[in-house]
């Protein structure tokens, strides 16, 4: 059984040290004759010259489709001519209603034999599902493209104020669940690369725009690679095709990419959400009396996020990749801090929200759980912080007594004070966007919290 597309990319990148994706865009004006055979021959010339340096090939379907049936056959031959160890991406930017998307997926993956495909996100999850359903294939979702007009729509503010391209990346991770998914982000916008990388730290990013479109290689790679130095394909097309010696030009690009990778990995990665928890006052440092009577040097007051709508929306969006791996029917916010987060998640996901009451009213419906649900529905508990886990266990008991199934808890911060073990004993599994240890590492690396304060927190009693 052949490894998955993204596993093949990892293997190819590690074995060659290359992140270069050779773009095969046989523009008619660059060919000796404007026909399917000339396009085919040009692509094979470039593939042969750059195979030693290429981590992947990306074939643009438009420059073959223009020649009709002969072009389609030539495209198939080009894809199948690639060495088996080099993954091939079909750049077709497909996207349509689910039944049409299924046909596009079959055409790309079965008929043409492509390993990966670029797709459009604008019809939503059901239109993406047929592409993701192809086992072992790779999907690259358009987020922030490299053309000059990309920002007109792709940079519009989404719910919470973040750019649409970041919101799309977060939503796509939730749609994909356990299935790996990649993203297209132009090398012409290094800051967009950094933002999508932060939203999708483990995904592969396809980054066109270096060369003829003017993208800065060093800046793009520094912002776009994963922490392991992989996870990014730098796509170069026209400048390679026009080079006097494409083989030498490809080798030069690989050397430049390797230098930028080393430089990028030596710099701390910003985490806007972690930093904003401090600047908004949701995390404060000093001396705070805990319920246990001990004094702690840190206090997490995430209830304050409700006063910062943009921060609340971005915090809720950070839950989405975790929720994408959990089957559930309703979101269950835990009073009180979990209620605004669950509300933001309901708005972002379209899933219904319920919540268990702390005190049941002695009038009206006297419902112990507010909101609409059906007996047997699966509820995922949503809260801000996990400390001992006691409030989560109590909430789960109320929900279960009302007929809901509850086995999963998702929080923003796990304080690592025993909640995971306590929840496990109650049949609940804890998922956290951050652990407190991870937040401390980020704050220390970014300099947003003084090193001596970080050390006091690390040495202090568990926060409450």
How would you characterize this protein structure?
- It is built from 19 helices and 17 strands.
- The chain is of the alpha/beta class and 464 residues long.
- β16, α17 (419-425) and β17 (429-435) form a beta-alpha-beta unit.
- α10 crosses α12, α14 crosses α15 and α18 packs antiparallel against α19 (451-459).
- The radius of gyration is 25 Å and the shape is globular.
Could you report the average pLDDT, rounded to the nearest whole number? 90
Radius of gyration over all CA atoms, rounded: 25 Å
Could you estimate the helical fraction of the residues in percent? 40-55%
Distance between the termini: 50 Å
Main sheet: which strands, in order across?
Answer: 1-2-3-4-5-6-7-8
DSSP, total strands: 17
Assembly type: single chain
Strand content: 15-25%
CATH fold-level label of the largest domain: TIM Barrel
Total domains: 2
- Give me the number of helical elements: 19
Largest sheet: 8 strands, parallel, barrel
Envelope shape: globular
Structural class: alpha/beta
Give the C-level CATH assignment of the largest domain.
Answer: Alpha Beta
Low-confidence stretches: none
CATH A-level architecture of the largest domain = Alpha-Beta Barrel
For CATH, the homologous superfamily of the largest domain is named as Aldolase class I
């Amino acid at each position: 059984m052949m490894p998955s597309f993204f596993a093949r990319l990892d293997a190819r990148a590690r074995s060659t040290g290359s992140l270069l994706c050779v773009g095969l865009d046989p523009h008619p004006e660059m060919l000796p004759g404007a026909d399917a055979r000339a396009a085919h021959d040009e692509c094979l010339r470039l593939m042969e010259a750059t195979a030693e340096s290429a981590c992947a090939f990306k074939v643009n379907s438009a420059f073959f489709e223009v020649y009709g049936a002969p072009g389609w056959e030539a495209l198939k031959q080009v894809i199948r001519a690639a060495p088996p160890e080099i993954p091939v991406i079909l750049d077709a930017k497909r996207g349509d209603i689910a039944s049409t998307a299924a046909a596009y997926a079959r055409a790309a993956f079965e008929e043409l034999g492509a390993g990966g495909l670029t797709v459009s996100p604008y019809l939503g999850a059901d239109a993406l599902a047929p592409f993701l359903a192809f086992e072992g294939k790779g999907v690259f979702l358009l987020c922030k493209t490299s053309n000059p007009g990309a920002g007109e729509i792709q940079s519009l503010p989404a719910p919470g104020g973040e750019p649409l391209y970041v919101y799309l990346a977060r939503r796509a991770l939730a749609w994909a669940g356990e299935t790996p998914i990649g993203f297209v982000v132009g090398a012409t916008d290094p800051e967009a690369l950094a933002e999508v990388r932060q939203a999708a730290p483990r995904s592969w990013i396809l980054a066109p725009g270096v060369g003829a479109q003017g993208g800065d290689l060093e800046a793009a790679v520094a912002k776009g690679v994963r922490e392991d130095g992989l996870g990014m394909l730098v796509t170069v097309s026209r400048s390679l095709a026009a080079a006097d010696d494409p083989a030498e030009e490809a080798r030069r690009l690989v050397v430049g990419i390797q230098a930028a990778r080393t430089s990028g990995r030596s710099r701390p990665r910003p985490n806007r959400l972690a930093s904003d928890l401090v600047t908004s006052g949701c995390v404060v440092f000093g001396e705070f009396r805990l319920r246990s009577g001990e004094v702690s040097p840190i206090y997490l007051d995430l209830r304050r996020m409700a006063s910062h709508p943009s921060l609340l929306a971005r915090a809720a969006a950070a839950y989405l990749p975790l929720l994408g791996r959990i089957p559930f029917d309703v979101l269950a916010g835990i009073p009180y801090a979990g209620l605004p987060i669950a509300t933001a998640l309901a708005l972002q996901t379209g899933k219904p929200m319920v919540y268990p009451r702390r005190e049941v009213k002695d009038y009206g419906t006297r419902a112990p759980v507010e909101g609409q649900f059906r007996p047997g529905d699966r509820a995922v508990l949503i809260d801000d912080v996990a400390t001992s886990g006691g409030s989560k266990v109590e909430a789960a008991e109320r929900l279960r007594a009302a007929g809901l199934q509850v086995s999963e808890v998702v929080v923003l911060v796990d304080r690592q004070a025993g909640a995971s073990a306590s929840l496990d004993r109650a049949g609940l599994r804890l998922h956290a966007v951050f652990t407190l240890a991870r937040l401390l590492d980020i704050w220390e690396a970014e300099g947003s919290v003084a090193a001596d304060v970080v050390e006091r927190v690390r040495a202090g009693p568990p926060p409450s």
